[in-house]
Specification:
Helix content is about 35%, strand content about 20%. It is an alpha+beta fold. Among the domains are: about 1-40 and about 290-320; about 40-270, P-loop containing nucleotide triphosphate hydrolases (Rossmann fold), CATH 3.40.50.300. A hairpin with a 2-residue loop joins β3 (about 110-120) and β4. The relative contact order is 0.12.
Amino acid sequence: MNSPNGLRGKIAGMSMHWSAAALAKASALYHEESRKLREAKSTDVRIAILGSEASGKTVFITALAHHFRENMPGRPYLDPANKTANDFLSKNWRLLEDGQWPFATAKNQLHRASFHLHHGQHAHPLRLLDFAGEHYRAVFGDDDPDLSSETTSALWQYACEADITLILVSLDDFMDAGPQDRRSENEWAPKKIMDLAKARGAAVAVVFTKADRFRAPLADQATWEGVFRHYLPATYGTAPQTRVFPISAVNRTVESDGHEVPAKSFGSEGFEEMLGWVSKQADTILSDRGHDVQTLKRKWLIGAMVATAAVWLVITAHMIPKTVPGDATADRPGKVIGCSKCSGTGLRPCKSCSGGGITQAQETCPHCSGKLVVKCPVCEGNRQSVCRKCDGTGTPPLLCFDFGDCNPCGGKGQIPCVACNRTGLTACTSCNAGRITVQHDCGTCNRTGKCKCDKCTGSGKLTKTAISILDILR
């Protein structure tokens, strides 16, 4: 059984094919499938609430959390996930009960509070970012978001990571003329959030706050969907099927010193339908994730088996010393033998690059700058594309025998871009979650892919000092 064609020779020959690079790939496969399986099993559904300072985010979340604070059978309930959230809720609810509005968030301040939305057997994180209106308009009120500060970057990430987005809208921002720039930003911000949610496949709803104060617009438009279409036409045109919820967080107010303040016995209206919709969307998201769990389990098992086989063969290779043909005692203890790990070469594949000479790193995508969306390549972000019939001239070709202005574009030479659904934005296809993989020359091995063997320190030889299991079997 000492011959190269025996059991030992066959195992040694097999194990030589399982280099450190192969082991690293098997391990990577196992860990990648394990990560996918954990994500598929995750019950975390991230919910974001976004709106201007006039939309009443603080009052909205305070009344919502207080309204659903009790765990009652058959309905969702909310509980604070940390002390910050509990302090936020207690302080603001006391102010409302005392007939005062919560204080406005100062510029450059960012308050974080986390709640858990419980329904059925699931609990989903609901993170609240209480931010100033200047930050809301800086991030969503223009084509290019201002991410120069930590606050605006956190707000952008908050919107990008959400599985469900609630856009809070107050008609005060649209019925009051105010500065033209401010109103333009207020009209563009909901559309920007809607485009971002659609590009990511997130569920989104529009919530009209202070609904009890706007009976006249509702009477004029008959339904809240009609109010949505009339006052936010750009956002409505992007997603006309969006769910709309009218909410009155404080449904009764009284006048005090010329200002309206919460009445002592105020209530809240509209929360049940909205939170029921959020719960159903969360169930749908979890159901979609669960479809691939069984497939991921099979892939995970294959990855585990491949990694185990790789480890076994590599360990077996280390136990079998290199023998000299014709010398039956060459692999006995005390003999100088060839290093089994590097096959006597003194070199092993570089661990940093797995023998390829190239390393990889994750960097911010240069195409979308980590924002996940890019300008539409057809209209270059202008939301208008060249009319194909008149080739942008506004007049149809003479061969069409069609005199006058071009019918499709009405003589303008441009038509709404269908590639981006008139949004000017499309999902970035060059990256994964705003990151790309970049290759660099390995600095450990200087791109050679080889380093000194750590077992024989580059000499290629070892002195055998122990008897392996195969020595005993032999």
